[in-house]
What we know:
By secondary structure, the protein is of the alpha/beta class. It has 2 domains: 3-12 and 195-307, no CATH class; 27-190, P-loop containing nucleotide triphosphate hydrolases (Rossmann fold), CATH 3.40.50.300. It contains 12 helices and 5 strands. It has helices at 27-41, 57-71, 88-98, 108-124, 141-151, 170-176, 179-182, 196-209, 223-233, 237-253, 261-269, 299-307; strands at residues 46-50, 74-79, 128-133, 162-167, 185-190. It has a 5-stranded parallel beta sheet with strand order 2-3-4-1-5, with helices on both faces. The longest helix has 17 residues, at 108-124. Mean pLDDT is 87; it is low at 278-300.
Amino acid sequence: MSYYRHFGLEREPFGTTPDPSMFYKTLGHEDCYERLKLAVHLQRGLSVIIGDVGYGKTTIKVALLQELQAEGEYEIGIVNNPRDCRTDGQFLRSVLGQFGLTPESRTALDLTTEFLRHLEAMHVARRKVLLIIDEGQNCSSSQLEILRTFLSFETPTEKLINVVIFAQPELEEKILRKRNLAQRVGMDHKLNPLNRKDTGGLIEHRIKMARFCRLDASNIYTEDAIDVIYERSHGIPRAITNFCADCLIEAAFLQLDTVDAALATEVIGRRIFTGADEDGRTVRQVQTTLGIPEGVVDMDEARARRRA
Length: 308
């Protein structure tokens, strides 16, 4: 069902995938993205991007990959979750496999040597090598040591490999405990939640990218509604997009042209999992703004109130 056509949109503005075209560069996210891109181009070695769940790490990663792949100078490998590799040998084979290598060696030392030969061959061929580690907070101590070893592969003038780790905050302590690795971090950035201004900017950007024919997002989301979305999301980008999608779907169902504060409060209040609780516990919210008794919301009554 193309509910978004009710608002004159040509595509869904608040999808759950990390679409680079929907990447809204706040000051913090743009600073992170540009510094990361520069670090990779300058072959600074290790870059670490820290951010809690839903803060925009994956969107930055996908945007970076899209740009680097378009340049055509990079051999790129991605390990999506180090936890899937139960041994150092599996981790090394996973890395080598990402670069099209079929490892013949059995020991970790031999696998590392085999990878070094590949990096040297790529250097001679004037190809740059980038390894991306996602969910980096799951890296074991020995896996981090393997990455440190990779970063020691270099010529007198440049690194043979760049490593970018995207991770939740738990990785910080792990790296700090490894002084030799911490000293090799050429670039790092910690993503923070959005402020109120950027929350409105993100919503407006996504509406515009969905080819909205009117001028700005205020035609759909009132300023009071954005206030509610910001307050309930705590500025977490993923929570913001989820809330906006819920509100837009509800407004289309009720044949409304705008999302106001009352509707936003009602819709978000029905969510069991908001994704916005900082301590990670399940968030249960109840609707109070419209005078509905605390507990389960009567949907028929709520919709009747909205249509009235």
